[in-house]
Every structure is written in structure tokens, then in C-alpha cells.
Amino acid sequence: MRRCWSGAEGQPRLILFPDAADNQQVPTGTWRACITLFTWNDSYSVQVQLCDAQHKKLFEIINQLADAMRTGKGDEVVSGTIGELLLYTGTHFQQEEALLRKTNYPRLAGHEEMHRRFVAEVAALDRQARAGRTANSVQVLGLLRDWLLNHIQKVDRQYSAHLNAAGIH
Ligand SMILES: [Fe+2]
Ligand SMILES: [Fe+2]
């Protein structure tokens, strides 16, 4: 299987990777051209400067992995990416939740639960990496991509009007 195609403009492309059998018939490196960096655009903005800046940092961390994968070094850097992501999401989630808590955001509990589940997934990958079972960079990039698209664009953006109305921009 070897497919890649563009999502909507500015969004990461959906990437499927070749299985072993197919891979033998695909010239080395061909699929790597399918990996695109995650480009920030306004559809990711939550209209709150602090959160946008932190989300951009998450993009940067993920792009380090995508970039390494493009040169065939993804599996070498993936455990570092996981560790960095675990640390940074900890900081970001704490600050985002603090803003929501102090403004009595009605959907706080559900939002916190989504954060908690994501951290648990990344922590499990981190434990695997520390135990020497290096996580597959394809799996990790897929997890991160799904989270970026779904969480920031759909869930985080739900709080924009609430925080803006409380004077937080
Ligand atoms: Fe969030
Ligand atoms: Fe967020």
C-alpha cells in the first residue's frame, strides 16, 4: 500500500505507508516524499495568544519528527520527540486548564478528561521507549496528527468565544 494525498489546504496530508511486500517494489525513498510538515494556519487559531503560541510549539515538536522521517531518521529521533512532547503537553495542558477553570468554562471536565487520555497515550509510548521497545515513528506521527487535527481544531476552538468574552485574547 502506498498512498498519499492532500487534505484541505494547509492541513497535513493523510499518509499511508507501504507494507513490507509492497515496499519491495517501491524504489527506496519514494514514500518519504509523501511526508509533509504541519503548517500552521488560521484554522488552528483558538483566538487566545498564549494557547496559539503553545500550539505552535507543539507543531514544531511534531515537525522535528516528520522532518527526520523524510530523511529516514524517524525511528532514531522518535523517543526524544515523545519525551519532549510529554513535558510540553504537561505545561500546555496545565495552563490551558487554568484559564478555563478561572473563567468557569462549562465544558472543563470533559476537556480535562481528553487531555488526561492523550497524556496517558503519550506516557505509554514513553514507557515503551524507555524499556527499549522504540516506538514506531509512523505510529507516533499518526497519533500526533490525529490529536492536532481533532483536539486543537475542534475541541480547543470551542473555548475561543468563552475566553474572549472573559477578556482573554
Ligand atoms: Fe485542550
Ligand atoms: Fe490546547
What does this structure look like?
With 169 residues, the chain is mainly alpha-helical. The chain has a single domain, classed as Hemerythrin-like (Four Helix Bundle (Hemerythrin (Met), subunit A)). Helix content is 61%, strand content 4%. The protein contains six helices and two strands. The protein has helices at 20-23, 49-70, 74-102, 108-130, 137-155, 160-165, and strands at residues 3-5, 14-16. Strands 1-2 form a two-stranded antiparallel sheet. A hairpin with an 8-residue loop joins strand 1 and strand 2 (14-16). The longest helix has 29 residues, at 74-102. The chain starts with a strand and ends with a helix. Bound molecules: fe (ii) ion (FE2) (2 copies). One fe (ii) ion binds next to helix 4 and helix 5.
Number of strand elements:
2
Beta-strand percentage range:
under 5%
Cα(first) to Cα(last) distance is: 45 Å
The helix-strand sequence is EEHHHHHH
Cα gyration radius (Å)? 17 Å
The CATH topology assignment is Four Helix Bundle (Hemerythrin (Met), subunit A)
Whole-number count of domains: 1
Average pLDDT score:
80
CATH H-level superfamily title? Hemerythrin-like
Structural class: mainly alpha
What order do the strands of the largest sheet run in, or round the barrel if closed? 1-2
How would you sum up the major sheet? 2 strands, antiparallel
Separate helix tally? 6
Ligand list: fe (ii) ion
Task: Sum up the overall morphology in one term.
Answer: globular
